[in-house]
């Protein structure tokens, strides 16, 4: 407060455990830029003083300075934490009245003995950014402003109590929707089917559900506004139960469909089809499995999805079998051609040898005949 007055002294400062300021102290100082305006600084005693006899004293002082001030400066120690927000909320609670709702001042939060590094997600932030991230006002003030404007336009007096009730409905409904969406997203990300069965074990699914439920409830409690009878929290839990039961049904259908395909494809071995003509035989067997699977009743809404995944998993096998079939078939044709060519060459060689032998025999016979004729002479 002394700094606001541009002075180093004025309001007393205490360094002991005993409160120095009692009640409300007032100091009038000239406005730094407007000569016709005087600033009235009000310094109140600290909240929660153990020497106070009446616990309502804090509430009275807090209400009085709100009514008197155009700007409220709230002073706290070290950090903006949940307890600081709760203390401020409790001091500002009470039966709201339309008579003073219009006098709510602007708000400034100051901290003393702040020792933390102003880092968020590895990035240095300003004090204003730290306050904004701590308060997370979001849409509450905007909704409240709309309600007040609507009330004024209808020529009625803005009622804080009615506005808070309506605001509670808006904010809590949004909190339920956001928290349920978080649960649904986390459940989808963390439920990882076992490749052996194509589904998740019942115990594992229940464990993931409990984790996601707690995170969704945590988000709801952070964003909810005056859900005093926990009606909206109960509504959130019911919606989450519905999502979970749907996931359980989906998981059961996945298990049923994958078990059926595993049983039908037991003889669909990959290695046994790596041969000439294996691709055609594999396609025949695979088509038969698909027809039998589709004809089986009671598979549920996950049937087509499971079949699509089953066929996709075998695309590499199909390409491998087709490639091997093509290579081996070509090689077999080459071997047949080589055998035919070798047989032809052997036949030709045998024919040539027979011709040569025939010629040799004819020559010898001619020689013998020639000798016989010569002897007779």
UniProtKB/TrEMBL annotation:
<dbReference type="Pfam" id="PF02841">
    <property type="entry name" value="GBP_C"/>
</dbReference>
<feature type="domain" description="GB1/RHD3-type G">
    <location>
        <begin position="1"/>
        <end position="143"/>
    </location>
</feature>
<dbReference type="InterPro" id="IPR036543">
    <property type="entry name" value="Guanylate-bd_C_sf"/>
</dbReference>
<dbReference type="InterPro" id="IPR027417">
    <property type="entry name" value="P-loop_NTPase"/>
</dbReference>
<keyword id="KW-0175">Coiled coil</keyword>
<feature type="coiled-coil region">
    <location>
        <begin position="337"/>
        <end position="371"/>
    </location>
</feature>
<dbReference type="InterPro" id="IPR030386">
    <property type="entry name" value="G_GB1_RHD3_dom"/>
</dbReference>
<dbReference type="Pfam" id="PF02263">
    <property type="entry name" value="GBP"/>
</dbReference>
<keyword id="KW-0342">GTP-binding</keyword>
<dbReference type="GO" id="GO:0003924">
    <property type="term" value="F:GTPase activity"/>
</dbReference>
<dbReference type="InterPro" id="IPR015894">
    <property type="entry name" value="Guanylate-bd_N"/>
</dbReference>
<comment type="similarity">
    <text>Belongs to the TRAFAC class dynamin-like GTPase superfamily. GB1/RHD3 GTPase family.</text>
</comment>
<keyword id="KW-0547">Nucleotide-binding</keyword>
<dbReference type="GO" id="GO:0005525">
    <property type="term" value="F:GTP binding"/>
</dbReference>
<dbReference type="InterPro" id="IPR003191">
    <property type="entry name" value="Guanylate-bd/ATL_C"/>
</dbReference>
<keyword id="KW-0378">Hydrolase</keyword>
<protein>
    <recommendedName>
        <fullName>GB1/RHD3-type G domain-containing protein</fullName>
    </recommendedName>
</protein>
